[in-house]
């Protein structure tokens, strides 16, 4: 029986089911999920007392002020879990320590800037400048795209390859950071999409022995997303704000670049490109639509032309909208894993785990909301 379980575990990419490496990844995920899950109620209560809340506007769907400090709890859960994993040192990550630190520093900058923007408002130009800084931070620490490694594209001279790769890296990081932020408009959408994306990328990265650092970071990010989603599924008790959305977008973009250190960028970026096709396509259609309407600054003029807004208008239900977009993200993730060559058994297990986790947090939130309603009536 034990041998059969161990054999199955190896078939889904787990070399040693009871080894320190796998258990550390699992502990990282559970730490992030539990810490975020339990930390958010306290953050919510404090946010209400000090007035950290989003007011209703043309982009938001809430009818009354809603605490917007969820991003701080997500970041705290993510960092705590990474610190725990780092202390355990289950795997050798010395070769990429500087890159991991660069990612964490950049994520911190995104969260702080997003939080300040949530509370006081920052100009689009300043936010873009900070995002550019975050992208440059990755580049100077060795995390960048090599254009000549991208399949199906012509090889260019080295004098052109480097600046072109830098430009693509900036576009990738800044673009995905904004894409995830723009997707945040309906309860549960970004939390669920980020959870699905992080888990799919984790499984894909686990197929390669030198991507252990990426696996740890993605486990922490996935756990934080799941813990947050417990409180954000409709009816939401708190939202992540720009702090949380940009944290997810930036970190997912940055961690995907860790795969370019020893493997070709074609293999390491194709999967995240497919996995995160939903926010990318949403942002693309919104930007093109606004430009077509003569809006010169498409990122600085919020409206309700996003996919989640269109779906909400069609379904009339926030929960159904979130579920549909989770399904789309999951389908994109499966396609990405197939392209990556992830074993079929691993794909099936990943889908089942994702569905179970999403059902569990949605069920817990709905049950809690019903209990809150009954308490109000009494």
Automatic annotation (TrEMBL):
Its EC number is 2.7.8.-. Mg(2+) binds at residues 181, 242. It is an enzyme of class 2 (transferase). GO terms for cellular component: plasma membrane. The keyword Phosphoprotein does not apply. InterPro entries: Glycosyl_transferase_4. It is found in: Cell membrane. Keywords: Cell membrane, Magnesium, Membrane, Metal-binding, Transferase, Transmembrane, Transmembrane helix. The keyword Ribosomal protein does not apply. Its main location: membrane. This is MraY family glycosyltransferase.
